Amino acid sequence: MNPFIDIRNDFPILKQQVYGKPLVYLDNAATTQKPTTVIDALCNYYRQDNANVHRGVHALSERATVNYERTRDDLVGLIHANNRREIVFVRGATEAINLVAQSWGNANVAAGDEIIISAMEHHSNIVPWQWLCERTGATLKIAPMNARGELLMDQFDAMLHARTRLVAVVHQSNALGTINPVAEIIQKSHAVGAKVLLDGAQALAHMAVDVQALDVDFYVTSAHKMYGPTGVGMLYAKEALLEAMPPYQGGGDMIRTVSFERSEYNDLPYKFEAGTPNIAGVIGFGAALRYLQSLGMDAIAKHEQSLLAYATDKAESTGYIRLIGTAKNKASVLSFAVNGVHPHDLGTILDRDGVAIRAGHHCAMPVMKFFGVPATARASFAVYNTKDDVDTLFVAIEQAYAMFS
Amino acid sequence: MFDLRSLYQEVIVDHSKSPRHFGKLDPCTHQADGHNPLCGDQLHVYLHIKNGCIDDLSFEGDGCAISVASASIMSETLKGKTLGEFEALFDRFQQMVTAPVDQPVADDGMGKLTVLAGVREFPSRVKCAILCWHTLKSAMHADSGVAKTE
């Protein structure tokens, strides 16, 4: 029994047909679809409240500012931050990581220091650290994983030492679905004085997260992977860290006073929000957060786990599918290879059956290299998916397999 | 399934599963790498040019069915052709796989290459079909760089 059966009605895009077949959308790890409440929030802002935030004395600006700032409070609630000064709006998880690498990294990382990332990172959690290491002379270390796609914790432990400045790992892998043991990683990293950044772009739509219980230093996400709009995301950081960090970009809204001699920066979190932000996006993000909260994170996780278990069983029973990423602790992602069918061909064939999956390297080329494949096919689940979707997926895979055998 | 079969014709499936001219060519006068970052296709082509003719050619690599079949059929077609004939066929192949779906394809003299005409119904796959041609061209022009579809 699917407790979310009615919620498909909340997503107008799901009602369409593709090539004459009902759309089965299984590319949620790339981006999720948007509920009507989010679409309405975007439209209502432009129809009724469009104005710049934090500076107008008129009614529209006040309404826009209230709605914009409300999202910050929603995020505090969702991730259990200590206060709203710890929530910075950015363009997405990628910008959040770049912000930390530039601002915190330049001020705190020096030659001889080390940064640890994992072997399953998205390119966005690799490249900014490579750049930081090139700028500063620090060394990038890669914590390895096993053939199931699980971090090898004893090797991670052995990498940690007094020169480790930062550990940046993905909370839930987009390419494999692996959920990393983040509480253990944070506790061990803190024991050697290292800070920890978690890339939560995949995780936050699929599980409850408590940044204070985790004691994590930086947590980043993108709204569009949690039923919100593209082009907006969040950096969470502990207030003391943000307070000490220099601004990332200069411009309007991030300053208190400016003269040609010097500028005085604004308070948190505005010190990090230069320029007119993605106001509509932030307001839409807030609607997405309230939508998630209304469903309940634990209920979402339970529903998606049952879909993943059902799909995993089906894949294993075919005899011709190799699963890529079989961690004991994983969520919402089924990455796989079909014998004799290249993932890109599979993606095209499934598309003609109305089934949208991702085929490619998932912006995680080192992960593909580790598993010895150029690409994988990936089905990824969201709250509105059903067992019928999974059944349709496997009927289509069977046809593709038959075509090449 | 009818329109899918226009892409995955039996000839294409056959060439993708048993590619012709697959492997290293030794000796060769020209070679180049080709890469399609979208689906991870990696090709390496070898050419032996003698007296302005493609005396022999081969390819290695890993890719989707369309890119492998295209390289295989291209190799069969081009063996023994002059460089001028290569240029003309490349132009016509590009036109064929990018022609609007509602227009007839001028496929006279194209031989087996016409089985790839169905690619034009799948815009995201045109790059897969054309990668080997770009790679061959960059080998001929002795560019040391990697041919890309982007």
Q: Helicity of chain A, in percent?
A: 25-40%
State the helical fraction of chain B. Answer: 25-40%
Task: Please give the oligomerization state of what you see.
Answer: heterodimer
CATH topology of chain B: Sufe protein. Chain: A
Radius of gyration of chain B: 14 Å
Strand order of the largest sheet of chain A: 4-10-9-8-7-5-6
The fraction of residues assigned to DSSP E strands of chain A is 15-25%
CATH class of the largest domain in chain A: Alpha Beta
- How many domains, in number, for the residues of chain A? 2
The radius of gyration computed from the alpha-carbon positions of chain A, rounded to a whole number of angstroms, is 22 Å
Q: Shape of chain A from CA axes?
A: globular
State the low-pLDDT regions of chain B, or none. none
- Biggest sheet strand order of chain B reads 3-2-1-4
Q: How would you describe the overall organization of this protein?
A:
The complex is a heterodimer of chains A (405) and B (150). Chain A is α/β, with parallel strands linked by helices and 405 residues long. Chain A folds into two domains: 134 residues, Aspartate Aminotransferase, domain 1 (Alpha-Beta Complex), CATH 3.90.1150.10; 256 residues, Aspartate Aminotransferase, domain 2 (3-Layer(aba) Sandwich), CATH 3.40.640.10. Helix content of chain A is 40%, strand content 17%. A seven-stranded mixed sheet of chain A has the order 4-10-9-8-7-5-6, sandwiched between helices. In chain A, helix 10 packs parallel to helix 13. Chain A is globular and about 75 Å long. Chain B is of the alpha+beta class and 150 residues long. The radius of gyration of chain B is 14 Å and the shape is globular.
Write the layout of secondary structure elements.
The complex is a heterodimer of chains A (405) and B (150).
Chain A: E1 17-18, E2 21-22, E3 24-25, H1 36-49, H2 59-79, E4 87-90, H3 93-108, E5 114-118, H4 127-136, E6 139-143, H5 153-159, E7 164-170, H6 182-191, E8 195-199, H7 211-214, E9 218-222, E10 233-237, H8 239-244, E11 255-258, E12 263-265, H9 279-295, H10 297-318, E13 321-323, E14 333-338, H11 343-351, E15 355-356, E16 358-360, H12 365-371, E17 376-380, H13 387-404
Helix pairs in contact in A: 1-9, 2-9, 3-4, 10-13, 11-13
Chain B: H1 2-7, H2 10-17, E1 30-36, E2 41-50, E3 53-62, H3 65-78, H4 83-98, H5 126-140, E4 147-148
Parallel strand pairs in B: 1-4
Antiparallel strand pairs in B: 1-2, 2-3
Helix pairs in contact in B: 2-3, 3-5, 4-5
